[in-house]
Design a protein that fits this description.
Blueprint: H1 10-19, H2 22-40, E1 44-45, H3 53-59, E2 65-66, H4 80-83, E3 122-127, H5 135-144, E4 148-153, E5 155-157, E6 167-171, E7 179-181, E8 190-194, H6 201-211, E9 215-218, E10 232-234, E11 255-260, H7 272-284, E12 289-292, H8 297-305, E13 307-312, H9 323-330, E14 334-337, H10 343-346, E15 353-355, H11 360-369, H12 372-387, H13 390-403, H14 417-424, E16 430-434, E17 447-450, H15 451-457, E18 463-468, H16 477-480, E19 483-489, H17 494-504, E20 509-513, E21 516-520
Parallel strand pairs: 1-2, 3-4, 3-6, 5-7, 6-8, 8-9, 9-10, 11-12, 11-13, 13-14, 14-15, 16-17, 16-18, 18-19
Antiparallel strand pairs: 19-21, 20-21
Length: about 550
Amino acid sequence: MPTQVPRRLGRVGRILRLAQPGYMRVRWFERRLTRAATRIGADLIYPMSPKDLVTAKAVAVGEQAIFRQPSWPSAGPKDIVDLAPTRLELSSSPAGPPLPFHTPDDQRPGRTPEPGRHAGVRIAFAYRRSDTTPAQYLESAAERAGINVERFDGAIDWAKVHPDTTAVVFVESPYPAVEITGSNERGIPVLFWVHHGEHHLSANLRLARHFGAHAILMAHSWHLAHRFSVPVHRFPFAVAPEICVAGLPFRERSRDISMIGAGVEGAGGRYARRQQLVAALKRLYPHTSSFQSGVLPDEMAKLYADSRIVLNEGGDRHHPVTMRVFEATGAGAFLLTDDAPGLGLLFHRILHYTQIDDDIDDQVAALLADPETESKATAAHQHAMDHHLYDHRIDDLLEIASATRVFPHEDVPASSGVAALIEEDLDVQEIALFGMNQLRSELEPYVLWDGPTLLSTMRGHTVDAVVLGSAYHGRIDVPAERATRFIYASQKHHGELERFVQRRWPDAKASVHDGIMRVDLLATSYRARSRFGGMPEAGA
């Protein structure tokens, strides 16, 4: 769509284009863009920036929906983020609709799952063991149900998977991804449990291919289902009864409000709102509040069992129904939360929780003084015990496995050079390119930055990986400091990069593949080491 008209008329056209005022050019462009997009009649509209939301709203008519990024303003009544939980066609993949779990029509009665009810069934779980991954609780629930569980910690050899296995369940994280040997020649259903939203989407699309998934189990962010090529089923987190039990009577608890999560300290970044809320609450309740990060699950459970209110703010990277929702309700605390898309289908907005409002000071004071807060916390706890134990999720898992169609996966053309190395590092999402812009066509599924633009316009912004090509002539340290996980460099930069890395990250691991140096910084935000030696889940 040209931004200036008329496109022809020779010299006269050039004069007219030069004479157009900027505001007029923008107005005409938006009108032409709106008309063109309306003619196309797309089911889903992707604005490329927040300012394009106005045009997207003008185009969206009938059943069309608008997809926008989590940090952008709402797209209004056509926003797929809000529509997908209640409209199954907007939370389905092109491969077809999911089973109708956690939809407006899913009104199953509460129940206590019987131990041993699935005796004789066999399931394999493949993930990296860590302190915090919810996969361990799903696995324990399978054992309580009488299922014969096979465990593959960090690596799986298909030749060692029992031929009578009902399904193999891969789990998104902890990273790095599970290593695979051999192929699924027996045609066992492969399910992939996805834990994150937009900020891990491109990694999860690659992981689905890497694992050979026949179906996706999606914990939340169901509006992303259309991005996967296999069926997507709703599969939220749940209450782990081995750690989440109702604690002290509500009024005897020593903490008025608490929260365990990343970014509760500091200022700015993706948890800026969380930090503002926490700072206000610390001032109001200096002795009866607790806000921490990096806490192990058993310690977290003890804190929530001694708290009247648990704060749940999800950040601005995605729209998660976090594990904290179930940790709080499982402990019998009252949930004060972001009203994340889909949460209202799991719990009742009025009877079970309250949405955070702008005046957090008065809101928390009112909740602590209101006798109904205790009754709502009790009701939410009972609802969680009746509907949202990992024991309930195991029943859903077996239904999904029985409905999953096994099919051969298409061979994907192999990449080469730097692109091949990056594809092996499956948890890479965001990449900055310095002197190697020719890689753009090979790295389309990734979030790509032009390196110099990143340095000049995004102060302090980090990326998963930095690529240093032979056409880059600047200093090594400046772009390298922007990497949180990997640095890839052409032969021209090997010596300088190796010396810098030895000074800056002495524990990093460097290797050379076909002339490309790959540096694994081993660092990295939520990928911190755990006592199991693996990488724990994102704190969210």
